[in-house]
Specification:
This protein is an alpha/beta fold. The chain is built from 13 helices and 10 strands. It is elongated.
């Protein structure tokens, strides 16, 4: 700490008390031309032994206001958080009304440093009101849910398997059977070949693996017979039966009324629909018409899908009709349309079975190829004496290709089976759609397909 202020005060005291007495505390030798005080003693001036008394007298006469300002004891210890906020330090320095007597003095001694022992910081206390508004248990977090569907699943958990089309959209079963004749753009007829330059009164020869004749008025009917039985359920596996009639037939007189093909579909209680196009109208012809064109069978089935959807009355069933497996049933002269459809129709993968009702008059190679390449499908051919020889020839062809076949129907399974069945004794060819190896043979085939049971 500097001694300048103290020496100045001492000098001022000496001047005030002793008048001419002067003590130089700043220099050890006298200045030139001056006489030191100690060398010239005086009776009126105090001696060196009286110096403390002079100091006491000098300081006693000083006014209180001249005394040095109060100073606080220096300390290197950092004031605590509570002391600072309580005003212990701040108030002393800031207050102007503090008395001199109460003011602490500054010390020149080495300050003592107080090392505070660090106490563990207590965990912050959080008011409960900051977390929730009341003392009730917090509500559990909401669970996640599946996208809602039209049909109830087995449970409402996330472990439930994703729905498919059939479980997603539940369409009610059909309450009443519907049967109708609908004209198709893709129907086998009418067909007007480029080579037909003669008028309608003349016969035109059309060659497609066999010779058939174009007869007046026989190939102009574009209608297709559609039938959906009562109770048909598009939510279940279903099958489409495509029926090709024989010579001299019409859809109304023969297929619907005499042969009762729609009735056989209904009586089987199978989840099946019927598509029966008009071939040669009441004529002795096996002409397949447009069906000989590549992909023509697929086009006809696609149009049938649209018409069946309209007939059902609910657009949601369109996908069900579009994916149905197909069973082709051909009677008599319908064999050529059946062979053409399985060979070049464009829906080989959807054809599950082929049934020939006394219809194997030709195209043995085409049927043998389909059987050889579709081992998971089934093939049934039943005959009278008119087609017995052709059936025997096909059996020999299949034996040469290592295809196993039998002569009896299994009761509850047809997939992968190849069966040749003779018709019952005395059954006429004309009645074969109604009576073959059994009464109502189309119904009998559907009865042996439990996967399509309603």
């Amino acid at each position: 700490m500097s001694l300048g202020p103290t020496v100045a005060l001492v000098a001022a005291g000496l001047a005030f008390a002793g008048g001419t007495a002067y003590v130089s505390l700043m220099h050890d030798s006298p200045a030139p031309g001056e006489v030191r005080v100690l060398d010239r003693p005086s009776a009126f001036a105090p001696t060196i032994h009286q110096f403390p008394a002079y100091l006491d007298a000098a300081f006693a006469n000083l006014k209180t206001a001249m005394r040095p300002a109060p100073m606080m004891t220096a300390s290197l210890a950092r004031p605590s958080f509570a002391a600072r906020f309580a005003g212990v330090v701040t108030d002393i320095y800031a207050s102007s009304s503090t008395s001199v007597a109460a003011a602490p003095t500054r010390s020149l001694a080495r300050p003592q440093t107080r090392v505070a022992k660090a106490a563990p910081t207590p965990a912050p206390r959080i008011r409960a009101a900051a977390l929730r508004m009341d003392e009730r248990e917090p509500a559990p977090a909401p669970k996640s849910y599946q996208v809602a569907s039209y049909a109830p699943t087995r449970d409402d958990t996330l472990d439930a398997p994703p729905f498919s089309f059939h479980s997603d959209i539940r369409v009610p079963p059909l309450r009443q059977s519907v049967t109708t004749l609908v004209p198709f753009e893709s129907a086998p007829f009418p067909l007007h070949p480029a080579s037909a330059t003669a008028d309608e009164g003349e016969h035109v020869r059309i060659h497609f693996r066999s010779t058939v004749s174009w007869e007046k008025g026989a190939f102009n009917d574009p209608r297709v017979l559609l039938h959906i039985p009562k109770g048909f359920d598009p939510n279940k596996p279903a099958v489409m039966v495509v029926f090709f009639h024989g010579h001299g037939a019409t859809l109304t007189r023969d297929v619907l009324n005499r042969q009762e093909v729609p009735a056989q579909i209904s009586e089987s209680h199978a989840n099946a629909v019927l598509v029966a196009p008009q071939l040669a109208y009441d004529a002795r012809s096996s002409n397949p018409g447009k069906l000989w064109e590549p992909g023509a069978f697929a086009r006809m089935v696609r149009e049938a899908t649209a018409q069946l959807t309209l007939l059902y009355g609910d657009p949601r069933v369109a996908q069900s009709f579009a994916n149905m497996p197909i069973i082709i049933v051909a009677y008599s002269g319908g064999y050529l349309s059946a062979a053409t459809s399985i060979e070049r129709g464009g829906l080989t993968n959807r054809i599950q079975g082929v049934v020939l009702l006394d219809a194997l008059y030709g195209e043995l190679g085409g049927f043998a190829n389909w059987i050889s390449h579709n081992r998971s499908g089934f093939f049934v051919s039943s005959w009278t004496h008119s087609t017995q020889r052709r059936n025997a020839e096909l059996e020999e062809m299949l034996s040469g290709r290592d295809v196993t076949f039998g002569h009896a129907m299994r009761s509850n399974r047809l997939d992968g089976n190849v069966v040749f069945l003779p018709g019952d004794d005395g059954i006429r060819h004309r009645d074969f759609v109604n009576h073959a190896w059994a009464d109502k043979p189309i119904k009998d085939v559907l009865d042996r397909l439990p996967e399509y049971r309603l």
